[in-house]
Amino acid sequence: MTNVQELADGFSYLEGPRWRNGKLYVSDFYTHQVLAIDESGKVELVATVPEQPSGLGWLPDGRLLIVSMRDRRVLRQEEDGSLTEHADLSELTTWHLNDMIVDEAGRAYVGSFGFDLMSGAPVQTANIVLVQPDGSAEVAADDLAFPNGMDLLDNGGTLVVSESFGNRLSSFNVDSSGELSARQDWASFGPEPTSEDIAEVLESVSAVPDGLCRDEDDTVWVADAIGQRVVRVAKGGEIVDQVSTGDLNVFACALGGSDGRTLFMCAAPTFAEHERRDTREGVLLTAKV
């Protein structure tokens, strides 16, 4: 059994983990903070985002991009630490922004909720927006069942995305300009839900794929938001490895560490905002994989 350890605690709800230059960068939703955590568990404040941070990534020149969820913007942190607007996605999306992946050229792919999840509104599909390095933006893909964690495979030629309420991972071909095409099921965990009631959807699926990250062989590690586990999935849907998080649910993951084989896992008792907002039960877990 994989040995899971707690690296740091006292958070509200962690999301969007990314390993870079010896530290794990992560967003803590309800404290509105982007944090950097080293392998000893030392935590430092990187930025404060009043409208709730989520997905993270970097431009080629090293400036940090941060999803600002509630006002549906992507922010850019300048060299002096200040935040400025990189892209306004409010006209292209219908509810909070979500996770993000940024490629080597500085193109950002940003997912969104599509509906008021935390109030139990009817389930609606959402889109992925492509933000070019200059901040211009367009819808790259639509009709996704809560597009969530993303990563790039095949040397950047394939984008894989969790459809959290679709019981699957989907993939797209990526062309030289970043455009997406040829959508297909990359991995299916069972039939696609048909209900618009979120409780019925959660009861009908075998997994809720949330944050994900690629492994060196183009398998992906995926946090299962209802399964207290992170699973390593091959194309087609075979689960080739998994790490249990015990009694805690896990919502995002990233590979990193000095050896490149540390799996960082963002865990908490639940994802419900009214339960996480005023508590500090979120933890960062690690396992060697």
TrEMBL record:
Domain of life: Bacteria
Keyword Hydrolase: yes
Domain SMP-30/Gluconolactonase/LRE-like region: 15-268
Entry annotated with the keyword Hydrolase: yes
Pfam families recorded: SGL (PF08450)
SUPFAM superfamilies: Calcium-dependent phosphotriesterase
UniProt keyword annotations, A-Z: Hydrolase
Similarity-based family: Belongs to the SMP-30/CGR1 family.
Protein name: Sugar lactone lactonase YvrE
